[in-house]
Amino acid sequence: MQKIEHLGIAVDNLEEANTLFSKLLGTKQYKVEEVDSEKVATSFFKIGDTKIELLEATAETSAIHKFIQKRGKGIHHIAFGVEDIYSEMKRLVQEGFELLNEVPKEGADNKLVCFLHPKTTGGVLVEICQDKK
Ligand code: ZN
Asked: Average pLDDT for consecutive 10-residue bins of the chain (133 residues)?
């Protein structure tokens, strides 16, 4: 793992959250992107080397919708940047972590992503992500 690439925050209204986080961080979102496969609308803020990803559900089948229903809005996941997602996934499985997707998925912001089951990571939803080459 190279660094904390971003923190994912579940929001119930992306527009309102963009306004709030722009005020909080003193900078505007640099990108808004829908990820159809995940049924989310996202926006990204850059803070130094790290990003903040806001996620709003675009359908009731979205994991973000379910998360907010169950736990309310707030911090959703922590994402670590990796050089090679395939070798990192293999290493994590060998270490006993459970992957939520066996094959890397297309994520927002030009990434390949994989999530780890929170029951194997102390209750924290962990994402690993790699820049698409
Ligand atoms: Zn993420």
From this structure: 96 98 97 92 96 97 96 97 97 97 92 95 96 90
Whether the model pTM is above 0.85: yes
Q: Give the distance (Å) from ligand 1 centre to CA of residue 94.
A: 23
40 CA distance to ligand 1 centroid (A)? Answer: 11
CA atoms of 37 and 128, how far apart (whole Å): 17
Phi and psi at residue 90, in whole multiples of 5°?
-65, -45
**Residue showing tokens 């790699």:** 130
Ligand 1 centroid to 20 CA: how many Å?
19
Distance from Cα 67 to the centre of ligand 1, integer Å: 14
Contact yes or no for 62/18 (Cβ under 8 A) = no
**79 CA to middle of ligand 1, Å?**
6
Provide the b/e sequence for 21-38 (b: ≥16 CB within 10 Å).
Answer: beeeeeeebeeeeebeeb
